[in-house]
Amino acid sequence: MSRRRRVYEGKAKVLYEGPEPGTLIQHFKDDTTDSDSQKHATIEGKGVLNNRISEFIFSKLNDIGVPTHFIRAINMREQLIREVEIIPCEVVVRNVAAGSLSKRLGIEEGTQLPRSIIEFYYKNDELYDPMVSEEHITAFGWATPQEIDDMMALALRVNDFLAGLFLGIGIRLVDFKVEFGRLYEGDMVRVVLADEISPDNCRLWDIRTNDKLDKDRFRNDMGGLIEAYQEVARRLGILFENEPKRRGPTLVK
After folding, report:
1. For the structural domain made of 6-84+223-251, what CATH number should be given?
2. How far is CA 149 from CA 106, 139, 152, in A?
3. 86-206: CATH superfamily
4. Mean pLDDT for the chain?
5. pTM listed for this prediction
């Protein structure tokens, strides 16, 4: 069996060369970090859950015509995806005040926003992904005005879909982060949804209890991260009986 060529490794995923030109294999790791990467742990089973939740959501988005990089699932930890040029701007959609928004503006966490708000962050770990404006994005050539419009329109479509999906299973979509990439098809270039959508990059609260079912459980030392992710998967109907059991996080210095 030939050794796979690693193309890129991030905090939570590894990309390998795909079986055909223009494809990659996206492998989900069990690694977990907080917002500024100061805290790092390996939590057994997290990568499996994120892979399957993201696969489920991306498949549904493909079905409703949202262009994504997702092709199909390969196994419990891996997906076959289209190779794209990642636009270095994270797009955050906020429906409810939480996290940095509450801290910046002094709005009580849990306050329903008057409308969904879109924010942009420069994708740079060394700078801790600073918030930027559309002026920064165009001035530094990270994306064109048309690409910004495309990203915003797609992000709002994803928000509408996710809000309805999670509402139907008793979960409140507080906010989420997505990334986009340029897909080159001959002489044509289009913006598509990339990366992942999972409890790692969504804030998900139980509608009845406000229990956090997302990565904030790790960021805020609340414990129970795997159990929370399993609950999301269970409600989505994708949790199997032989789901990996949590043995506790292994802290990495």
Report:
1. 3.30.200.20
2. 29, 15, 5
3. ATP-grasp fold, B domain (3.30.470.20)
4. 93
5. 0.92
